[in-house]
């Protein structure tokens, strides 16, 4: 808890997962937090989210309501199939292995459940929310954000948590800065267990596992939600949405045609789909800085490191951002430390966030190979490790011993403890002039 005179007024733009997580973490550190969100309310939008141990441990740390864990599904197995259905990789004790290695679970959640649980916790901690206010301008001299409706919100620090189409980012760079298409789009599908009559599929839904099917230019992922009462499928395919359109209702027929010849199990699932949306997958170039020169604006989440969802790290790394920022702010003893604390946040988070972005593109390369020599070599590597403990580089980073540990093993709380121990001067108190006056 920060002392009273180091207490900041924090204004967070955006009540997505990164915004609310940072609100919790900053409020736990003793700061006064206001969140401004353009939506009129938090709707149960979105579909499934894979929450990996690096973020699951934070949700535990923040003491989210028990109902969140009851709404989760913990996959017991993880399987990668070639698009034909042939098994390329299989971890038959995935849940146990993950808990043993990382001391935290890998769980699948409905995005709405997670967002509402975070929201409830933030409200408990006294965070103030303003819905239906779209921020269009920032006055950096006075640390004030202005909404389209003409309202103003002032503070000591503005946290940009406004996602892919960040207005804060444009205010920071001083020009239009729209996201760039990745060349892929996602079909997102959620089915309920009672919609599914096929006994084989029902068994898959009710017994949580993760399945990937990888093929030329595309892949699919399926996993259970809500303790096996729901099934989430994401289909990642080449983008054919018109330029400038980021989301559109899709045609079920067009979607099914893209997967003709793929595993019959996947196709059986697709016969249950009655409507579907297409989401253009976008990213951004790297920003030079995540903190402005006047140290009153800092970036988190998709506003500064949007990525392909191919490692399910967008939300997970956003929660890490929130944890690190809030915990560092909890070590403040004097407001004058803010510029250096923000720089420390940037040094801890920027290189990791950007490394994860690059890794998601590498995963696309390895999952979307056209049939041919490169794909044959990849599959030989996959199959050489089937049924064994995986060693060395592995084409699925989900179980790769070189990538999984740095993704899932990251502990934001320990990272902050280490950074604080390594920077004793930054957090020392009081300022020399004040103590000198007191002595006099
Ligand atoms: C198909 C797909 C599957 C995914 N699966 C996973 C997964 O399994 N695991 C995972 O970790 N991640 C996943 N992700 C990524 C994840 O959803 C995002 O990375 C994450 O939600 C980003 O959170 P955020 O809070 O930074 O941004 P957002 O969720 O975009 O939130 C931004 C918020 O700011 C508000 N806002 C925007 N502009 C303004 C403004 N001017 N004024 C006020 N409010 C504003 C918005 O309304 C919104 O509420 C997936 C993404 C996709 C597309």
Automatic annotation (TrEMBL):
Residues 8-359 form the FAD-binding domain. InterPro entries: FAD-bd, FAD-dep_Monooxygenase_BioMet, FAD/NAD-bd_sf. One of its GO terms (molecular function) is FAD binding. Keywords: FAD, Flavoprotein, Monooxygenase, Oxidoreductase. It comes from the Eukaryota. It holds the Pfam family FAD_binding_3. Belongs to the paxM FAD-dependent monooxygenase family. This is FAD-binding domain-containing protein. It comes from Penicillium atrosanguineum.
């Amino acid at each position: 808890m920060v002392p009273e005179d180091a207490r900041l007024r924090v204004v967070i733009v955006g009540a997505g997962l990164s915004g609310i997580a940072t609100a919790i973490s900053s409020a736990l550190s003793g700061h006064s937090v206001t969140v401004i969100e353009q939506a009129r309310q938090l709707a149960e939008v979105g579909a499934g989210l894979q929450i990996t141990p690096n973020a699951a441990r934070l949700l535990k740390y923040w003491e989210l309501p028990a109902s969140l864990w009851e709404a989760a599904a913990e996959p017991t197995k993880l399987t990668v199939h070639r698009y034909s259905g042939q098994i390329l990789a299989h971890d038959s004790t995935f849940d146990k292995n993950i808990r043993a290695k990382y001391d935290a679970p890998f769980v699948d959640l409905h995005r709405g459940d997670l967002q509402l649980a975070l929201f409830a916790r933030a409200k408990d901690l006294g965070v103030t929310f303003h819905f239906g206010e779209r921020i269009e301008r920032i006055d950096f001299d006075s640390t004030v954000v202005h909404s389209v409706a003409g309202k103003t919100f002032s503070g000591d620090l503005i946290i940009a948590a406004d996602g892919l189409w960040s207005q804060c980012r444009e205010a920071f760079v001083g020009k239009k800065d729209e996201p760039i298409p990745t060349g892929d789009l996602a079909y997102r599908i959620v089915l309920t267990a009672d919609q599914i009559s096929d006994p084989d599929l029902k068994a898959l839904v009710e017994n949580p596992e993760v399945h990937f099917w990888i093929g030329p230019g595309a892949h699919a992922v399926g996993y259970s939600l809500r303790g096996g009462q729901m099934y989430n499928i994401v289909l990642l395919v080449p983008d054919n949405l018109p330029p400038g359109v980021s989301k559109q209702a899709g045609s079920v027929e067009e979607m099914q045609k893209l997967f003709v010849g793929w595993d019959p199990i996947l196709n059986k699932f697709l016969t249950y789909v009655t409507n579907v949306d297409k989401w253009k997958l976008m990213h951004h170039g790297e920003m030079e800085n995540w903190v402005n020169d006047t140290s009153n604006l800092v970036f988190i989440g998709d506003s500064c490191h949007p990525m392909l969802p191919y490692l399910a790290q967008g939300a997970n790394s956003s929660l890490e951002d929130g944890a690190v920022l809030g915990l560092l702010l909890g070590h403040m003893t004097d407001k004058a430390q803010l510029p250096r604390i923000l720089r420390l946040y940037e040094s801890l988070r920027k290189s990791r966030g950007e490394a994860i972005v690059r890794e998601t593109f590498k995963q696309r390369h390895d999952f979307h190979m056209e049939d041919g020599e490169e794909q044959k070599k990849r599959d030989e590597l996959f199959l050489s490790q089937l049924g064994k403990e995986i060693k060395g580089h592995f084409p699925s980073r989900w179980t790769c011993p070189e990538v999984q540990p740095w993704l899932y093993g990251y502990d934001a709380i320990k990272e902050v403890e280490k950074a604080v121990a390594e920077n004793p001067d930054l957090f020392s108190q009081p300022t020399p002039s004040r103590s000198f006056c007191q002595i006099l």
